[in-house]
Write a structure and sequence with these properties.
This protein is α+β, with helices and mostly antiparallel strands and 447 residues long. It contains 15 helices and 15 strands. It has a three-stranded antiparallel sheet. A three-stranded antiparallel sheet has the order 4-5-6. Strand 2 and strand 3 form a beta hairpin. Helix 5 packs antiparallel against helix 6, helix 9 packs antiparallel against helix 15 and helix 10 crosses helix 14. The longest helix has 23 residues.
Length: 447
């Protein structure tokens, strides 16, 4: 049974003949009488145009019927795979190379469809593609997208190719061009409205930077929520006056929220830690739109991932909490730690630990806890903190993020009402996670 026999159920009876013709053209592509360097690009544009027409005839949601995958390597070889529901064992695969020839040499054929374009516009795109291959870096992707915006294409299409990647297509002119930038299909309507209806063109570059953050995913959710909180703040505080209140942001405890319990003795030292699940949910949307983005953060599982990654961190004397003398600087930090003297009361002495450090894992522990810890256990706690100290800062903080001076670009200096609510939840998560993280406690017990 051929591919058509398996998928014809997805089309109306009156349109099946047309759908069959379009499918044939998608499968067989365009075969010029004389091969030339841009033949594969022409073939790709031909197939994608007919695929676009075929998608318009599908009676069920396209995403349920047609799956598209784009893969590419550092040599700019692009492979496009199309599979249909019910015929997954008969994929349609074709490929092309971005750097061989990017544009359709038979551009004259499209003059009537795209009369607003000139060869000068096309030459600019060719220059951008050859000199700033957009699939190699985020910077190149931005340059190329800016070039696309400067040319008045009507039918610019964005696609998700795989995790953390997107691609752009100009039907009939450019095939799918992979970009080194994240893309979340659920945010397409969000992006389009802000770019086309809300923000003026002169603010698009800065807006794009914030949207890129919203499209991105990060290793740890608290890190992700901190970055996205700042991106949403920028968007909210730069909305034109008539759109004030357009962005809706909300934060609430998840149904699985469970408070961490840290018990202290009379002197204020820790004698028991019960790690909870301080999980919150931040949601955001544009007023009037059905799509609402939700991000869960602060869960116990996220802390587990952080603890596992922290153990992989190699101890160095650049941690900021070690004080290795020049004489000992060539000595492995782990070996140097063995020279540390751990007193019965939890005090730590030796040339390794920075004496300016106000607290340590051992100083957190009560005397009764220290009494039953062996030296190896005390050493393990100390090593865990040294490994985790800087990693926890990265784990719980966004690192460098783009900051804008509101006075420089005319934005209001006010903070949105939702901003402090989100910030307080992040502070709460930090407070509940920090001690268990340093003590190596996962699920209420030392892992």
């Amino acid at each position: 049974m051929g591919i058509w026999d398996r998928i014809k159920c997805h089309f109306l009876g009156a349109e099946k003949q047309l759908a069959c013709t379009l499918l044939y053209r998608v499968i067989h592509g365009f075969k010029p009488e004389k091969e030339n360097p841009s033949s594969k690009v022409i073939d790709t544009a031909f197939r994608l145009n007919h695929l676009d027409a075929l998608e318009q005839l599908v009676v069920t949601p396209v995403s349920d019927v047609i799956e598209k995958k784009l893969e590419f390597d550092d040599q700019a070889d692009v492979t496009f795979t199309i599979t249909f529901k019910g015929a997954s064992d008969l994929p349609i695969v074709f490929s092309y190379n971005l750097l061989e020839s990017h544009l359709n040499n038979e551009f004259d054929k499209f003059k009537k469809e795209l009369p607003q374009h000139t060869f000068e516009d096309i030459n600019r795109l060719t220059f951008a593609l050859r000199n700033h291959p957009p699939h190699l870096s985020k910077k190149n992707s931005r340059i190329f997208v800016q070039c696309l915006r400067s040319v008045p294409f009507k039918h610019l299409k964005n696609h998700a190719s795989k995790v953390n990647c997107s691609c752009v297509e100009i039907p009939g002119v450019l095939p799918l061009i992979p970009l080194k930038r994240p893309f979340n299909p659920e945010l397409m309507e969000f992006d389009k409205f802000l770019l086309e209806q809300v923000f003026p063109a002169q603010m698009h570059d800065k807006l794009e930077e914030q949207l890129e953050i919203l499209h991105s995913s990060y290793p740890f959710k608290v890190q992700e929520i901190t970055k996205k909180m700042e991106a949403l703040r920028w968007i909210d505080t730069h909305l034109p006056i008539k759109y004030k209140g357009l962005l809706k942001v909300n934060v609430e405890k998840s149904s699985d929220y469970h408070q961490s319990v840290i018990s202290h003795d009379k002197s204020g030292r820790i004698y028991n830690v019960d790690l909870g699940n301080p999980e919150y949910i931040m949601s955001y949307k544009l007023d009037g739109m059905a799509t609402c983005m939700r991000i869960n953060f602060g869960s116990k599982s996220d802390l587990k991932v952080g603890a596992v990654e922290a153990r992989k961190v190699k101890l160095t004397n650049a941690s900021g909490i070690l004080n290795i003398s020049e004489k000992a600087s060539e000595v492995d930090v782990r070996d140097s730690l063995k020279q540390v003297v751990i007193e019965r009361n939890g005090e730590i002495s030796g040339a390794v630990v920075d004496p300016t450090k106000k607290s340590s894992t051992l100083k957190m522990l009560s005397q009764s806890t220290l009494d039953w810890l062996t030296f190896d256990q005390k050493y393990e706690y100390l090593e865990n903190e040294l490994r985790g100290f800087n990693f926890f800062q990265k784990f719980m903080n966004p690192g460098k993020s783009v900051e804008y001076n509101a006075e420089d670009d005319g934005a209001d200096t006010w903070l949105p009402d939702w901003y402090m609510d989100v910030k307080e939840t992040i502070t709460d998560v930090r407070r509940q996670m920090q001690r268990p993280f340093y003590l190596g406690i996962i699920d209420g017990s030392k892992d």
